[in-house]
């Protein structure tokens, strides 16, 4: 390690994984926090009186959503611009401020942050994320999410990272240099896709069952699995107001399995376009990261389908799916030379 | 409380009279006091910095504080006294058969009782103070209940402006009575030291008069300075109290305060340094594009 100039003292480095479903931060002061990517504003004075504060975040916002104007400001990993762009931008800024506040910076510290963005986000989306962050931190950089995962694990050679988020699945091959556009693929077969697929299947198979998006998400998070012999997913859903038990084992399995073929498609595409001499090595080093990688048996299922379609494959699930991106981004922030941070202030 | 023949005048405000009800009773009581010549005192009480406390702790905390202060006031009242809630959470009390001196004593007791209260808000102990404006019907110009309320409210304003936690009676009955009647108030008596004969042949004031005038001005200024200093002390104390109540999070120091950057001893040092440079340049290009107005085209590394 090098001893910095006096100007470097009092810097807090942050790695932020700004996700559609969860936003996580890992900070150089040892703080690690994660919050569901929801921001809610009190609808009226009655709601304000009940809640005692104007803005709520994460699970607290979800729990009080009936009293709030609720925003999920990120869609497919970037700030939503389709409906109410101003409201979503404000919510994104507030979300970034909140996650930074939770990192507990000291008042006299400079805050330097690296934010992971989807590998193939457009320039406009990246600029929107930067605009949201600049109001809160002293200097900020973006980097590709799967790259930050690989950097955090120090696996920079012949590794294929599959980062399964809520909005997108980002795949990126590392070959010792900075990945280029051709090294990265993003698709939308991720957590939200599983939710909507599961909702479709419940609607088709559970006549009369009443449910919301949040309920479907909760069912997925509790029972998600692609294993043939998975534990039964017994769920109570209201039918005409009466809680009724349904066995959703097959529906959950089918919904979770629906993202496997597109992931293997992406892996195949990245392997096939790689240097043939190193393709076998790349297939043997596939890293599963992100919240979606917590689906039970997903690593084995991807591996099985790789064997079927590519002849071989070895998939490893990273140890900390929720903080993998944030940890890597923090390592990048820390390793970045001080002069670069100064220039981007 | 007095039993008004089963008529319920209580609103949803914990049994307090609303502004219209308390006005009705005040008028009646004032008229009765005038007819039977007994003294009444009118007090308007407000909790200091209540709006700021609401900003810090929320609306429910405000209600908790107000309700607790209402209990304190009620404990000090007799059955024949009347209590009502005015706009802005001010409390109006009409003390029957109470003279000016007892009114001042009651106000002091109320202030002390409010100060003894403590509130547990979000795990933080909080104490509040109040201000009270007082008026009584024994004054020469206290002819109507409107004047009583106006003088009490004026006293409250002065008490709040002086930093709170005090009671004030302004004695401006004549002014408010004149305003009520829509006539100009007679000018206040001018101190003898300021009275000088008018007309062109006005003689130059003597040296002793000038000295008296200057002494009066100095005394006035000194009183103003003392008042401002007292207000400053109160404000600083309040700031200290609010800061400690908020328990401001001082944050966690970064473990990288002393060391940072990529070590030259690290494996793949050169390669990582090159990656850092690529990421930095991509971000720099992104920022330039933003400044230029957003030409689209993706940069490697981000």
Describe this structure in words.
The complex is a heterodimer of chains A (345) and B (302). Chain A has 345 residues and is an alpha/beta fold. Among the domains of chain A are: 6-150 and 323-343, ATPase, nucleotide binding domain (Nucleotidyltransferase, domain 5, 2-Layer Sandwich), CATH 3.30.420; 191-257, ATPase, nucleotide binding domain (Nucleotidyltransferase, domain 5, 2-Layer Sandwich). Helices cover 39% and strands 25% of the residues of chain A. In chain A, strands 3-2-1-9-10 form a five-stranded mixed β-sheet. In chain A, strands 13-12-11-16-17 form a five-stranded mixed β-sheet, with helices on both faces. Chain A has a three-stranded antiparallel β-sheet with strand order 5-4-6. In chain A, a hairpin with an 8-residue loop joins strand 12 and strand 13. Chain A is flat, with a radius of gyration of 21 Å. With 302 residues, chain B is an alpha+beta fold. Chain B has two domains: 19-195, Reverse transcriptase/Diguanylate cyclase domain (Alpha-Beta Plaits); 268-302. In chain B, the strands form two sheets. Chain B has a five-stranded mixed β-sheet with strand order 2-3-1-6-7, sandwiched between helices. Chain B has a two-stranded antiparallel sheet with strand order 4-5. In chain B, helix 3 crosses helix 4 and helix 5 packs across helix 6. The model of chain B is unreliable at 1-12, 187-202 and 294-301 (pLDDT under 50). At the A-B interface, strand 1, helix 4, strand 10, helix 12 and helix 13 of A face helix 3 and helix 8 of B.
Describe the structure in brief.
The complex is a heterodimer of chains A (345) and B (302). The N terminus of chain A is likely disordered. By secondary structure, chain A is an alpha/beta fold.
């Amino acid at each position: 390690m090098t001893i910095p100039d006096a100007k470097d003292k009092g810097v807090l480095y942050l790695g932020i994984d700004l996700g559609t479903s969860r936003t996580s931060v890992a900070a150089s002061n040892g703080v690690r926090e994660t919050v569901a990517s929801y921001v809610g504003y009190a609808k009226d004075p009655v709601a304000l009186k009940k809640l005692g504060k104007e803005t709520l975040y994460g699970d607290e916002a979800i729990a009080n959503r009936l009293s709030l104007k609720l925003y999920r400001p990120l869609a497919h990993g970037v700030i939503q611009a389709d409906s109410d762009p101003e409201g979503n931008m404000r919510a994104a800024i507030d979300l970034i401020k909140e996650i930074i506040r939770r990192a507990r910076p000291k008042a006299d510290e400079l805050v330097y942050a690296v934010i992971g963005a989807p590998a193939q986000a457009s320039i406009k989306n990246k600029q929107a994320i930067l605009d949201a962050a600049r109001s809160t931190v002293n200097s900020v950089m973006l980097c590709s999410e799967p790259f930050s995962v690989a950097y955090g694990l120090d696996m920079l050679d012949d590794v294929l990272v599959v980062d399964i988020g809520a909005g997108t699945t980002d795949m990126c091959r590392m070959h010792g240099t900075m990945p280029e556009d051709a090294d990265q693929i993003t698709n939308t077969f991720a957590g939200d896709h599983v939710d909507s697929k599961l909702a479709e299947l419940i609607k088709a198979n559970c006549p009369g069952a009443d449910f919301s998006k949040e309920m479907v998400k909760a069912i997925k998070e509790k029972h998600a699995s692609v294993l043939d012999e998975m534990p039964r997913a017994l769920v109570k859903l209201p039918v005409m107001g009466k809680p009724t038990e349904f066995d959703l084992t097959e529906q959950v399995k089918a919904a979770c399995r629906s993202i496997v073929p597109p992931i293997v498609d992406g892996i195949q595409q990245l392997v096939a376009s790689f240097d043939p001499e190193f393709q076998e090595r790349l297939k043997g080093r596939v890293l599963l990261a992100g919240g979606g990688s917590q689906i039970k048996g997903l690593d084995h299922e991807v591996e099985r389908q790789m064997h079927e379609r590519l002849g071989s494959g070895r998939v490893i699930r990273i140890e900390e799916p929720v903080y993998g991106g944030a940890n890597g981004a923090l390592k990048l922030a820390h390793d970045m030379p001080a002069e670069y941070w100064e220039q981007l202030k | 409380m007095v039993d008004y023949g089963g008529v319920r005048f209580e609103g949803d405000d914990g049994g307090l009279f609303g502004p219209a009800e308390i006005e009705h009773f005040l008028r009646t009581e004032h008229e009765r006091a005038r007819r039977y010549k007994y003294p009444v005192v009118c007090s308007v009480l407000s909790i200091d910095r209540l709006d700021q406390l609401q900003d810090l702790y929320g609306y429910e905390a405000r209600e908790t504080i107000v309700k607790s202060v209402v209990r304190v006031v009620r404990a000090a009242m007799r059955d024949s006294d009347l209590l009502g809630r005015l706009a802005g959470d001010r409390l109006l009390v009409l003390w029957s058969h109470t003279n000016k001196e007892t009114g001042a004593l009651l106000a002091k007791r109320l202030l002390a009782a409010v100060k003894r209260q403590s509130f547990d808000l979000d795990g933080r102990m909080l104490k509040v103070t109040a201000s009270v404006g007082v008026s009584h019907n024994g004054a020469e110009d206290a002819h109507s209940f409107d004047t009583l309320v106006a003088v009490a409210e004026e006293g409250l304003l002065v008490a709040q402006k002086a930093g709170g936690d005090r009671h004030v009676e302004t004695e401006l009955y004549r002014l408010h009575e004149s305003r009520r009647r829509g006539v100009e108030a007679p000018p206040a008596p001018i101190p003898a030291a300021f009275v000088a004969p008018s007309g062109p042949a006005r003689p130059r004031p003597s040296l002793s008069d000038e000295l008296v005038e200057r002494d009066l001005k100095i005394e006035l200024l000194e009183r103003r300075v003392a008042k401002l200093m007292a207000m400053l002390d109160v404000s600083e104390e309040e700031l200290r109290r609010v800061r400690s109540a908020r328990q401001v999070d001082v944050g966690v120091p970064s473990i990288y305060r002393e060391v940072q950057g990529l070590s030259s001893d690290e494996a793949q040092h050169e390669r990582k340094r090159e990656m850092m440079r690529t990421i930095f340049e991509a971000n720099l290009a992104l920022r330039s594009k933003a400044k230029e107005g957003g030409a689209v085209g993706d940069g490697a590394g981000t």
